[in-house]
Amino acid sequence: MRTLLSATASALLLMVQLAYGASDQSAGATCKAARALELPGFDVKVAGTDYVSGKGPSYCLVNGSFEHRTGADGKPYAIGFSIALPDDWSGRFLVQGGGGLNGVVKPPIGDVAAGANTALARGFAVISHDSGHRGEVWDGSFKADQIATLNFAGWSVEKVTVLGKAIVSNYYGTSAHHSYFAGCSTGGREAMTSAQRFPLLFDGIIAGAPAIRTGRSNMSLAQKNVAMNRISPVGTDGVPDRSAAFSDADRKLVLSGILNACDKLDGIEDGMIANASACKFDPSSLICASGTSKDCLRPEQAKVVAEIFSPTLDASGRTAYPAFPYDSGIMSTTDAIPGLMRFDDKRNRQFANHALTFDVDDAIEKVDVDDPQQRLINVDQWTDLSSFASKGSKIIFFHGMSDPWFSANDTIDFFNRMKKATKTNIPADDWARLYLVPGMSHCRGGPGGLEKFDMLTKLVDWVENGKAPQSVDAGGAAPADRTRPLCPYPSYAHYKGEGDANNAASFECRR
Ligand SMILES: [Ca+2]
């Protein structure tokens, strides 16, 4: 109790110091005192504190863990966390989403959809966590323990949020006035879990490229892989050599075909496809005419391209996973996960598949029925966000159209079902937005160069000032001076017909 009082006193001292222009020294001392942090109801162990100054806005970093226990598998478990508490605190709190299977505590900075300024740099208190187990990013051994699995499925987000809010109150002597969540991939899935299962936790949520149902998406990729195997020559290692199914020239030809059909539909031929819903491309248009074999595809190649970009269907013809969009990043090699036409890449475990046949129904059985844990982890089923919306909370989704891992169409499908299923007297436009990002790969990258966008500012403005976001300007690496508006789905950025084609201001959102 004494420690708690002393921590509270430190917090008050910090507030006084901040009000009168604290020196780094005294803020540093307050940070150091957080080492003795104790919170009623939490078995928090602080591993260390670090006062970070001289590299942008100063903050106190507290690393620790809570919920220490022995798992059903006899292994020690805890939820590891790291929280950054800036001196110049905005009064806001943000929970940073994870990635992969989590298992590590990443630095808490809040960089998802934050543009050039991380949440931490703009004064948010930011917490990150390992979701309740430790291991390398694809180590799934924690699933031997029920609580660790439930934590991964989303329970840890609730626990860490409650803890983080308590630390913030303790440190600053006052509660955060608004709480946010931002994550991509697994972090995007956690964002959706939060809105679905813990609708009162956050005032604003950003869900990027969510891992909605990885069993189904991996199944769809495996099926495409098998389609590619069928037309691949057998390599020296005795298995289909997918790198030989298409030459780079073939891939370029496919990309050119897609761009020829779809680039101009947004009013400008700029190598980007913004009006994706109008994009109709038929790979059979690239099949060699009789007597030619150059700058064209063999019929079996065209068939495989069509299959790769079609929905994965079960035996009765129902969609088991939606199509991946035809987009400009299909042959990208610059991202962690290569484009969809790069199935030769051996870096990704789900592509290590040499089969020549694929039974979709059997695969569905395996991922849906035989893996009940995954079903709980999935976020495709729960679509009613009525409590979340009624409270006044807001959610923004984003998804790269060239994401080769999770199809943007699956997020679109969820978004539409969610809007329909959520019965409130508040129009969906008043609490939910979806932004599709042309040419962007999984969470970032891609040839479109539109990976930098600040949705966090828009979200805060929506939550705190009631100002709903419209377009969000995006820019990025290539070309460096090009910006485009991202438009709220189902609208897209159309070139006005005049003005600098590299400037977002020359575009308008159209439907
Ligand atoms: Ca275009």
UniProtKB/TrEMBL annotation:
Keywords: Calcium, Disulfide bond, Hydrolase, Metal-binding, Serine esterase, Signal. GO terms for molecular function: hydrolase activity. It comes from the Bacteria. Residues 1-21 form the signal peptide. Pfam families: Tannase (PF07519). Belongs to the tannase family. This is Tannase/feruloyl esterase family alpha/beta hydrolase.
